[in-house]
Design brief:
alpha/beta, Quinone Oxidoreductase, Chain A, domain 1, binds NADP nicotinamide-adenine-dinucleotide phosphate, six-stranded parallel β-sheet
Length: 328
């Protein structure tokens, strides 16, 4: 079958490790299902896999590995499904994100940039008819991350003001759309007018240049940018507020103003993907609110290298979805 995979990772030049070719079609073991992939989205995780850093330990023995940690498709009986990406210890109970043995699709189990993927039955979640198929490809990794950051980690409530660092990123655009739909006052920083305009189109009430001083502190700040924005995030959260860290698109280095954290009683917390319960709740919320996840660009899966290059060079505005099989 068609597959986009890594045979031998390259930590320095990740794109040179990309193979667009053929791999054996997977067979579903008992308790697993086969999904015919219709679309999947590009994530930073795919770049890490190309660099050989995927998985909890970056284990070399997992290669060759098919890329792709989210997606949408159909079961053999035609049921449309969207994929929940986390897997873990069969004996683990409770919050899947806390399982020390958790892995994400394409870390130990072959990923979704292929004609077919096989996953445990619970990971193939029925897709509500109200959510368009291609847009649903981004729900499992990007939108689930945003949902958990907003509603589980920050416990954001209607009427509160949130600050989202980064205007056009995948997780940022999800935070903006979800936050606005949930009745929050959504403030966004972004580099350049075009990116800030996108944030406004998606529901942001106010936007600021990256690094600009805000008129008042926010109840909660959501930071996927990391090194370039963390000190701004900490400075612009209110006393008793929360800074939720979800990534580091600009790097992971940073220093913490310890005095501010304890004197102003600020919570700094991390967030990783989400639970299966949160995924079902996200799907209900998206369907009920009539939300359509913003997609920046749809490319045929064969053109994956083009999309990855755009990601590496920061030339993105919203998610890139890779389309494979048409619906039906
Ligand atoms: N916690 C999780 O489970 C999880 C899930 C998905 C992703 N992530 C991580 O979250 C991060 C973002 O992922 P993504 O998919 O949203 O990436 P993306 O689509 O490439 O977006 C990157 C974002 O970072 C901003 N940015 C990058 N460099 C910046 C700089 N120097 N100064 C200010 N802003 C900068 C961009 O802002 P502009 O819009 O202004 O250009 C953009 O909003 C990555 O580190 C990824 O690994 C974590």
């Amino acid at each position: 079958m068609f597959a986009v995979y890594v045979e031998k990772p390259n930590p320095v030049d990740p794109l040179s490790a990309l193979v667009v070719g053929e791999r054996p079609a997977p067979v579903a073991p008992p308790g697993w299902v086969r999904v015919r992939v219709q679309a999947a989205s590009l994530n930073w995780h795919d770049l890490w896999t190309l660099r050989g850093l995927g998985g909890p330990n970056g284990r070399p023995e997992v290669f060759p590995m098919t890329l792709g940690s989210d997606g949408v498709g159909t079961l053999d009986d035609g049921t449309p499904v969207t994929l929940y990406p986390l897997m873990g210890d069969a004996d683990w109970r409770g919050d899947e994100t806390l399982d020390p043995r958790r892995t994400v699709l394409s870390e130990e189990v072959q990923g979704t940039f292929a004609d077919f993927v096989v996953v445990p039955r619970r990971n193939a979640v029925p897709l509500p008819a109200a959510i368009p198929r291609e847009a649903a490809a981004v729900l499992g990794a990007t939108w689930l991350t945003a949902y958990r950051m907003l509603f589980t980690k920050a416990r954001a409530r209607p009427g509160q003001t949130i600050l989202v660092q980064g205007a056009s990123g995948g997780v940022s655009t999800a935070l903006i759309q979800l936050g606005r739909a949930a009745g929050l006052q959504v403030w966004v920083t972004g580099r350049g007018a075009t990116k800030r305009e996108l944030a406004v189109r998606l529901g942001a009430q106010r936007t600021f240049e990256s690094g600009e001083t805000l008129p008042r502190p926010a109840d909660a700040v959501f930071d996927l940018v990391g090194a370039a924005t963390f000190s701004h995030s900490l400075k612009h959260v209110k006393t008793g507020g929360v800074v939720v860290l979800g990534g580091g698109a600009s790097g992971f280095e940073g220093s913490l103003d310890i005095a501010r954290v304890f004197i102003e009683q600020i919570t700094v917390t991390g967030s990783f993907d989400g639970t299966l319960d949160e995924f079902y709740a996200l799907l209900d919320f998206v369907a009920d609110a009539g939300l359509v996840p913003y997609i920046g660009q749809v490319l045929p899966m064969e053109r994956v290298a083009e999309g990855l290059r755009m990601m590496l060079e920061g030339r993105l505005a919203g998610k890139i979805v890779l389309a494979r099989h048409a619906s039906g």
